[in-house]
TrEMBL record:
It comes from the Bacteria. This is Methyltransferase domain-containing protein. InterPro entries: Methyltranfer_dom, SAM-binding_MTase, SAM-dependent_MTases_sf, WH-like_DNA-bd_sf, WH_DNA-bd_sf, WHD_Rv2258c. One of its GO terms (biological process) is methylation. Residues 23-90 form the S-adenosylmethionine-dependent methyltransferase Rv2258c-like winged HTH domain.
Length: 344
C-alpha cells in the first residue's frame, strides 16, 4: 500500500496511462490495424489502405502506439509491430494472446451508467447488455487454453481420461459459451459424444459456427432442464461464479451424471481467503467482478451474488448444498487464471 501523497498520485497517474494504452489497444484490435501491421511496416496512408479507416486518426494512433512503446519506428518513418507485441495482440492461438482483455474491459466500461445505477439500487446489468465485445472477448481469450492446454490437463487425471476415452461416452459442458471447451474435448476424445448447453442464445450461435468436429452439438437451454443420469462426465468451465442460482445448477449437474460419473468445475484460481495483500490475479478478478460478473449475477432474482472471486470454500458450500459430499482440488497447475475441482 502506498502511504505518501506523491506516491499514490503517481500510482493513479500510471493507472491512467495504462487505461489509455488499453483503450488504444482496443481501437487497434477492433479496426484490424494490428493484423494489418503483421504484413509489414506502414505509414498512416499504407495502414488504412490495407485495413481501412481514416488516415488522420491512423497517424495519431500510430504515433501514440510508438510513444507508448507498442510499435517501433524505422528510419523511413514507417511504423512496425515487433514480434513479441504481434504474438500478444494478433496470434489467436497463443497462450499469451491478450488483445481480448482490452476488448472485454472496454466493453464493460460502456456500461458504466448502468453499473452506477445498479450500485445505487442493488440491481444488476445482465450479460446480454454487455453485447458482442464482452461475449466474444471472453471466448477469444479462453480459446487458446482450451485448444492447446485442456486436453493435456484432462489427461493428467487418469480415471477421467479413461472415462472420456470409452467409445460412446456422453459428455456435457454446462455454460459452454462460444463452445471452445466442448470443441476441445470433442477433438481430444473423438469417440465421445459431447454436448454443450448455455442459456445465452447468441453464445450458442457462436458455438455452432465454431464447431468443426462431428461429435459435438450445442443447444440453448437452462441447466435445470438437463436429463437425469444421462452423462458420463459433466463439466462447468468458468461459469459457476456467474450463476444466480449455483446450488440449483450444481444439483442438476449431479442428477445429470450417471452413477460413477464425474462432475468437474473449472473456475478462477483465487486465494483460499481474502487478504488485503492480494496478488495480481486477485486484483484482476475483483476488476471483472466489479464490472461484469457480480452485476450480471445480480440481474436475476433470487441471486447468490457470488462474483468472480469465488473462494474454494464457497464452491464447497454450494456443492454440499447441492447434494455432493465434498470437493477435491485436482492436480492441474499452470492453467492460466484457473483451478480445477472434482465434485464428489
Amino acid at each position: 500500500m502506498e502511504t505518501t501523497v506523491a506516491g499514490f498520485a503517481d500510482r493513479l497517474f500510471q493507472a491512467a496511462l495504462g487505461m489509455t494504452d488499453l483503450l488504444a489497444i482496443h481501437l487497434g484490435d477492433r479496426l484490424g490495424w494490428y493484423d494489418a501491421l503483421t504484413t509489414g511496416p506502414a505509414t498512416p496512408a499504407e495502414l488504412v489502405a490495407r485495413a481501412g479507416g481514416d488516415e488522420r486518426y491512423a497517424r495519431e494512433w500510430l504515433e501514440q502506439q510508438a510513444v507508448a512503446g507498442v510499435l517501433a519506428v524505422g528510419g523511413d518513418g514507417r511504423f512496425a509491430l515487433p514480434p513479441a507485441a504481434a504474438e500478444v495482440l494478433t496470434d489467436r492461438g497463443s497462450l499469451d494472446y491478450l488483445a481480448p482483455l482490452a476488448r472485454m474491459l472496454a466493453g464493460a466500461a460502456v456500461q458504466l451508467p448502468a453499473l452506477l445505477d445498479a450500485y445505487r439500487t442493488g440491481g444488476g446489468v445482465g450479460w446480454a447488455a454487455y453485447g458482442p465485445d464482452v461475449r466474444e472477448s471472453q471466448a477469444d481469450m479462453n480459446r487458446p487454453w482450451f485448444e492447446h492446454a485442456l486436453p493435456t490437463a484432462v489427461a493428467k487425471i487418469a480415471d477421467l481420461h479413461a472415462a472420456l476415452g470409452v467409445p460412446g461416452a456422453r459428455v456435457l459442458d454446462v455454460g459452454c459459451g462460444a463452445g471452445w471447451s466442448a470443441i476441445a474435448l470433442a477433438r481430444a476424445y473423438p469417440q465421445a459424444v459431447v454436448e454443450g448447453v448455455d442459456i445465452d442464445p447468441p453464445s450458442i450461435g457462436l458455438a455452432e459456427a465454431n464447431a468443426d468436429v462431428p461429435n459435438v452439438t450445442f443447444r440453448a437451454a437452462d441447466a435445470g432442464d438437463l436429463p437425469e443420469a444421462a452423462y458420463d462426465a459433466v463439466f462447468a468451465f468458468e461459469c459457476v461464479h456467474d450463476l444466480p442460482r449455483p446450488v440449483e445448477t450444481l444439483a442438476a449437474m449431479r442428477r445429470a451424471v450417471r452413477p460413477g460419473g464425474q462432475v468437474i468445475v473449472m473456475d478462477e484460481a483465487v486465494a483460499d481467503a481474502f487478504q488485503p495483500e492480494g496478488d495480481d490475479v486477485e486484483r484482476l478478478m475483483y476488476g471483472f467482478s466489479l464490472l461484469i460478473c457480480l452485476p450480471d449475477g445480480r440481474a436475476h432474482t433470487p441471486s447468490a451474488a457470488t462474483g468472480t472471486v469465488m473462494r474454494p470454500e464457497t464452491l464447497r458450500r454450494y456443492a454440499r448444498e447441492a447434494g455432493f459430499t465434498d470437493v477435491e482440488t485436482l492436480p492441474i497447475g499452470d492453467f492460466g487464471f484457473w483451478r480445477f475441482y472434482r465434485l464428489l
